[in-house]
Amino acid sequence: MDFNGSQDYGSYPTGLPYNTSMDYEDYYQEPDVSKIIIPSIYALVCCIGLTGNAMVIYVILKYAKMKTATNIYILNLAIADELFMLSVPFLATSAAVRHWPFGSLMCRLVLSVDGINMFTSIFCLTVLSVDRYVAVVHPIKAARYRRPTVAKVVNVCVWGLSLIVILPIIIFADTVPAQDGGVDCNFLWPEAAWSEAFVVYTFLLGFLLPVGAICLCYCLMVARMRAVGLKAGWLQRRRSEKKITRMVLLVVAVFVLCWMPFYIVQLVSVFHRPPDPMVTQLFVILSYANSGANPILYGFVSDNFRRSFQRIVCFRWLESGLDVEQVDYCAVALKRQATCSPLDFPKDCMASEMVFRNGTYTSRTTTV
Predict the structure, then answer these.
(1) The model's pTM
(2) Membrane spanning segments where (predicted)?
């Protein structure tokens, strides 16, 4: 199809429409069951993503001990993922009704929010990897640069860079006429070649270059670890940094696994032929699922995040709590409910030697 602004436009059924030269006419011939299954999957991803990232944002903002430089970057990533999820209901609705019912302004707004938060996510992961590199390879300099105030400035720069990168989306996103007489939300490119150029542009800036920088950081870290070996003081510091580095690396690996199929489909569509529309749709959903996976990864890998999540979910009613570094809240709650009456609990069942002050706690390990 030709996309020179005066002929047929075509569109993605849902998701950020990078390659508008793809013909999804067959998508509208899929069985009606897809009208239920696809929006249902979107709804599940949205609920998990919104809940999980809201919990991450809450625990970092609430507990002063969680406000480390690394966690400030994680907070920025969680905010990006949370906003990323806000566009999902619009896309799910569009998938269900098979057209865009929200108008031109919302089309541009949703695609812009979708784009800026997608780029912000990968840029945040790149910054996190650089942060890990500085902490492991340059521990002396790390004290100067790895501060919450510096992290906040870097986060603002990340959002500014993302805004610049998505300017083509802001300019060219609009509603376009569909083949069935309805309206689709898509890009209105001046020339057909712009669509293909935009696919390559987003692949380079939103995937290949950031992932390359991330891999470089971790390669340098591995080389540094092998070089210093078991020098005095290194082993203890390496233990304190190991869990944080492993968590960041795992988050990056999941990002690559979730987004690589999407970009492969886009490139194949440009240089070969469009794949099956349902396959494309599933890969779009997989890319959105990445935003809901991050909080789950934090909970599994980081003891501090896991115990903070437990305090919210299982022990929220205990205002003067126990040390989150030493207690499994779910287990404690169940045990004490069995041994203490509600009247005795505040007076007799509190751990007197463990103190919370203003929502903060004391930790002997590196906080994540």
Answers:
(1) 0.74
(2) 36-61, 73-97, 109-130, 150-173, 198-223, 244-262, 282-301
